[in-house]
């Protein structure tokens, strides 16, 4: 059975790109898809898909790159907001150290500090989970 995306034109592909890495399940799915499309192996199938995407003959939304961009933008916004909160906390600390503030403000500042710790932990957890899955 001949490949369905690219017919052999007499020009052999000699330049290697990679190596590409897959999990066992991903590799099995890739082999199955290549066989379904009439390829003997997965490397030609993968190359044809990449070239079809580059030339515009095949289009797909790349959710991974879009998700990474959105995650980066979200984290940047959160960091900006945390910086603004930090500025406010510094102003509060300066006021507390001036002895011109009532004592109940100290308790509220401790609560705010605890909340900031929780936010920081929540923001770190997804990144740590991604690193563990990648390893």
Shape: rod-shaped
Low-confidence stretches: none
Q: Helix count, per DSSP?
A: 4
Q: Name the beta content range.
A: under 5%
- What is the overall pLDDT average? 76
Sheet with most strands: none
- Calculate the terminal CA-CA distance, rounded to whole Å: 38 Å
SSE string: HHHH
Rg from C-alpha positions?
27 Å
Helix content: 55-70%
Structural class: mainly alpha
Number of beta-strand segments: 0
Can you offer a commentary on this structure?
With 135 residues, the chain is mostly helical. The protein is built from 4 helices and no strands. The chain starts with 23 loop residues before the first helix and ends with a helix.
List the helices and strands and how they pair.
Layout: H1 24-36, H2 42-55, H3 63-97, H4 104-134
Helix pairs in contact: 1-2, 3-4
Name the features.
mainly alpha, single chain, 4 helices, 135 residues
Give a quick summary of the entry.
This protein is an all-alpha fold and 135 residues long. It is 69% helix and 0% strand.
